[in-house]
Design brief:
The protein has 564 residues and is mainly alpha-helical. The chain is 50% helix and 9% strand. The strands form 8 sheets. A 3-stranded antiparallel sheet has the order 15-16-17, with no helix packed on it. Strands 1-2 form a two-stranded antiparallel sheet. Strands 3-4 form a two-stranded antiparallel ribbon. Helix 4 runs parallel beside helix 16, helix 4 runs antiparallel to helix 17 and helix 16 runs antiparallel to helix 17.
């Protein structure tokens, strides 16, 4: 102050660069600094950043990234990391969300605030590596907790053991009661067949939703709130992903994405080869010896029929697991994720951060193998089935048929016994004999095609486009012989689209808290309602189906438009 015997220090957030200055300058209003700067008491300059900002190496105050904690005075080297986030190095300004729940972070609540994950042990016990994504020896990643768990008998093997025992008991009961079950099935064949068709459609829908959920979260989408997310977690067995249920890391430490890819792609091939060898060696491929020439001819026919039946069953089994296998292949071909590690960058496979893409022999081998499997599974399997069925397209949908649709459906029954691969068209109207292949393409587009996009926005747009187009096709075509099944699958299409729309609302923060939980409850109730419909006895609907089929037969003539 003017006339004072001594100078007073400037207050915090003020400064005076000149000794003996008559007034203090406010950091926030000076052009040299601005509202993101502050100072300590008695400062000659504004050298600190305000709360929510950190000072970079060039002395500029930068907004604190999501997942970091920046109290007043934070620098790049002292930036704290919140729980569930990871920072590669104290020189890196980037903070990344962890794919598991093993990142403890480094904040003042639990760890020293001047260090990062890599220096203060921010990974939970049993996890290590980039983004704490690698389970240590003796630990495995448990899906229920999404965290590395100790490989004790209770944690790792009780679940798989109980499932194995349960399946063994079920198989034993079926074998013991096979005659009685056969009679029961013969008596109620129509009802059980209809129930099986609805269950298959529901199974496919739940598999799509579960894989969509995983893809959505992988690109940064918000997780569905309770109670629907808990419902989905109890339905994960619909993905038929054995790796989720068996703790392979407890068997072999370092079991990674490449190992899983090999297991999931080679297992079906080896099982099929084993089944063929077993069938031949046990003489399940029948041979008849009624004479010489006639016997050989009959033997060849019988062998051909039995092998075709085996091919048909194998194709139907592959169709159930194809989206899961194809998604694993797609993840192996995704572009690597680039991480800022301070003075350097690190590249890791997005699906498994233990696989480095930077000159890694493991990555190069995996990429080549995945490219080969791409032509075997998501491309090869549907194309092969389509080609095999195309050979019988005229038997499935006679181009010059004089019968109405109901008559064609009735007269084409023998082809299903003679050529088992045509079983894919058994429940389809004649002109839609190919629809099961289209349905598989839809499943692959939703679950695997989305992996071609790296951002949340582009992924969401792709999924919405596919959902809407296939929904319209399903509604307009009504491809199933049973009108009730067509209506049921149409509702299942809507269930998928509603899941995508709710996810979009959550990502846009247009709904949250109580409103989001109410919407989540509605989705769960809709799913439960669909489960109930699967087991509804539709014998009371039989007369309705018959009436619809009769009306459709009089209205639909061969060569007319496919749109009803």
């Amino acid at each position: 102050l003017t006339g004072a015997a001594s100078c007073e220090e400037c207050s915090a957030s003020y400064y005076q660069p000149d000794a003996g200055g008559v007034s203090c300058l406010k950091c926030a209003t000076e052009d040299e600094f601005g509202p993101t700067y502050t100072s300590k008491k008695g400062s000659s300059s504004c050298q600190l950043c305000v709360n929510g900002y950190y000072k970079a190496d060039d002395d500029v105050c930068v907004k604190c990234p999501v997942g970091a904690i920046c109290p007043e005075g934070t620098t790049l080297r002292t930036m704290q990391v919140d729980a569930h986030y990871f920072r590669f190095d104290s020189a890196s300004p980037e903070v990344y969300r962890c794919p598991t729940a093993d990142c403890k972070g480094c904040n003042s609540a639990n760890l020293p605030g001047n260090s990062t994950n890599s220096t203060c042990g921010g990974c939970s016990q049993g996890s290590e590596g980039p983004l704490c994504s690698l389970c240590s020896s003796g630990y495995f990643l448990r899906d229920a907790s999404n965290a590395c768990t100790f490989c004790s008998a209770e944690n790792a093997w009780v679940g798989p053991l109980l499932v194995t025992i349960f399946l063994g008991i079920v198989i034993a009961i079926i074998y013991k009661l096979k005659d009685r079950l056969t009679r029961f099935y013969t008596t109620h064949e129509t009802t059980l067949a209809a129930m099986g068709q609805r269950f298959t459609a529901f199974f496919v829908t739940m598999q799509i939703i579960l894989l969509l959920k995983s893809n959505h979260e992988d690109v940064g989408g918000k997780s569905m709130p309770d109670p629907y997310i808990s419902f989905l977690q109890h339905m994960t067995f619909f993905t038929l992903d054995a790796v989720q249920f068996v703790p392979f890391n407890c068997i072999s430490h370092g079991f990674n994405h490449f190992d899983t890819l090999i297991l999931e792609t080679m297992a079906p091939i080896l099982l099929f080869i084993t089944a063929v060898v077993a069938a031949v060696s046990s003489r399940k491929v029948k041979r008849y010896s009624r004479g010489q020439a006639a016997g050989k001819s009959a033997g060849k026919v019988a062998s051909s029929i039995d092998l075709h039946l085996l091919y048909s069953h194998a194709a139907q089994a592959i169709f159930l697991v194809l989206p899961t296998i194809s998604r694993r292949i797609g993840q192996s071909l995704q572009a690597c994720t680039v991480y800022d590690a301070g003075d350097d960058v690190e590249l890791y496979l997005a699906a498994d951060h233990t696989i480095s893409c930077d000159g890694s022999g493991t990555y190069d081998t995996m990429f080549i193998y995945a490219m080969a499997m791409l032509f075997v599974y998501p491309i090869g399997v549907p194309c092969t089935v389509l080609v095999m069925m195309s050979a019988f397209r005229h038997e499935l949908n006679p181009p010059d048929a004089v019968l109405d649709e109901e008559g064609v459906v009735r007269d084409r029954v023998p082809i299903f016994d003679a050529e088992p691969i045509t079983a894919f068209a058994k429940i389809m109207r004649p002109r839609f004999w190919w629809y099961e292949i289209f349905n598989m393409v839809r499943r692959l587009a939703l679950t695997c095609g989305a992996l071609a996009f790296s951002s949340l926005a582009s992924t969401t747009v792709w999924i919405l486009v596919v959902c809407i187009i296939t929904l319209v096709v399903e509604r307009e075509s009504q491809p199933y012989i049973d009108p009730f099944l067509s209506a049921f699958t149409y509702c299942l299409h809507w269930q998928i689209l509603l899941f995508v729309l709710v996810s979009l609302l959550l990502d846009a923060q247009m709904t949250q808290d109580v409103d989001a939980q109410i919407i989540s409850l509605c989705l769960m109730l809709a799913n439960v309602g669909l489960v109930v419909v699967v087991f509804v006895d539709t014998r009371t609907e039989k007369h309705i189906r018959d009436r619809v089929l009769t009306a459709r037969a009089t209205l639909v003539q061969p060569g007319s438009s496919w749109i009803d």
